[in-house]
Design goal:
Blueprint: H1 3-6, E1 11-23, E2 27-34, E3 39-44, E4 50-52, E5 57-66, E6 74-83, E7 88-100, E8 121-126
């Protein structure tokens, strides 16, 4: 996650993966919750735009970018998922906790965090396998 981007309420998350088998189309997912567990925002490659170079790859990086999330100040928790177009294979629940400060919040956001339907864009990049010689 890009800490500098959070100052503008831009959420940029990279999910690097290594799978025991090639994923036809790698799909990532995110869920942002308040510190008390209330879901605020979520996205995955199944319903937000997705540009991927990853086709049948066992290694890669998925990046999700959501600009200007209109969230209120407080502590937030992020969970991530990895799967394909049909099934989730792995999850890391509550993997990252971070604050959003008062001075970095959109002043037009109404009080209360509520549930957001906010745009996000996903990209996928294949990671090359490193070969070492003896």
């Amino acid at each position: 996650m890009n800490a500098e981007a959070l100052e503008s309420c831009d959420l940029i998350v990279d999910i690097e993966f290594v799978s025991p088998w090639p994923l036809r189309t790698a799909v990532g997912g995110l869920l942002l919750k308040t510190a008390v567990g209330e879901p605020v925002w979520g996205s995955n490659c199944r319903f937000h735009p997705y540009e991927s170079q990853i086709k049948s790859s066992a290694r890669g990086v998925l990046r999700c970018q959501s600009r200007g999330l209109p969230i209120i100040p407080g502590q937030y928790v992020l969970s991530v998922w990895l799967g394909d177009r049909h099934e989730d294979y792995d999850s890391k629940l509550d993997v990252l906790k971070f604050p959003i400060a008062e001075d970095h919040v959109n002043p037009l956001r109404p009080p209360g965090s509520g549930h957001l339907d906010w745009p996000a864009v996903w990209e996928g990049t294949v990671l090359k396998t490193h070969v070492t010689s003896s």
